[in-house]
Specification:
Length: 192
C-alpha cells in the first residue's frame, strides 16, 4: 500500500514539474517579446538589435514584398503601351530596388536611425510617436521553437501581419514578418 502511494506522488510531482516547465517556457517567449517592445519604446537600438536575427528578417521581408509586387503585377494591365512598358520596367527593376533597400536599411544602423527622435517626428508639432499596444492582436506559440505576435492596424481581433520569433541559440529572436491576410488583400490595402 505504501508503495502505491509513493508511485502516485511521484507521478503527481512529475506532472506538476512538467506543467511548471511548459508554463515557464511559454512565459520566456512572451517575456522576450516584451523585452523587445520595451527596448523599442526606450529607443535602445542596441538592446532591440540583440533580439533580432537580421539576415533572417531581411529574407522574410524580401519574400513578403516580392509576393506583394507579384500580386500587383497580376492585375490586368491597360491597353496603353506606355503603362505596359512601365509595368515591365517595374517587374524587372522592382525586386532589385526593393531588395537593395531592404539590405541597406534593415540592419542595426537602420534601426538606430528609425528610433532617433528626428525619424519618429510626427508632423509639424514634432511629437514623437509612441508604440500603440492596441495594434498587438495576438501572441501565439506555433511550435516549440516558433512564436508569433499578431499586429494589425484595423480595429478588431484579426492581425494583418505577424512578427515571427524563433528560438535561436537559447534566445528568442525576431526572424521574420509574415502576412496573416491574403497577399491580394494586403496589396489592395497598402496601395501597392
Amino acid at each position: 500500500m505504501r508503495h502505491l502511494g509513493t508511485r502516485a506522488s511521484t507521478v503527481i510531482i512529475a506532472v506538476v514539474w512538467l506543467a511548471i516547465m511548459v508554463g515557464g517556457y511559454i512565459l520566456y517567449a512572451r517575456q522576450a517579446a516584451i523585452n523587445l517592445q520595451i527596448a523599442l519604446q526606450e529607443k535602445d537600438a542596441a538592446r532591440a538589435s540583440s533580439h533580432i536575427e537580421w539576415p533572417s528578417l531581411r529574407e522574410s521581408l524580401k519574400e513578403m514584398f516580392g509576393a506583394l509586387m507579384q500580386e500587383q503585377l497580376r492585375k490586368p494591365s491597360s491597353d496603353n503601351e506606355l503603362e505596359q512598358a512601365g509595368e515591365a520596367l517595374a517587374a524587372t527593376l522592382g525586386p532589385v530596388l526593393v531588395n537593395g533597400m531592404i539590405d541597406t536599411y534593415v540592419n542595426p544602423t537602420g534601426l538606430e536611425r528609425l528610433l532617433s527622435d528626428s525619424a519618429l517626428a510626427d508632423g509639424p508639432a514634432g511629437k514623437v510617436k509612441k508604440f500603440d499596444a492596441s495594434r498587438v492582436k495576438s501572441y501565439r506559440v506555433v511550435s516549440p521553437t516558433r512564436y508569433e505576435i499578431g499586429i494589425g492596424e484595423a480595429p478588431g481581433p484579426d492581425p494583418e501581419f505577424a512578427i515571427v520569433m524563433e528560438l535561436r541559440r537559447l534566445s528568442w529572436m525576431v526572424t521574420g514578418i509574415i502576412p496573416k491576410k491574403p497577399i491580394a488583400e494586403l496589396a489592395a490595402s497598402t496601395g501597392m
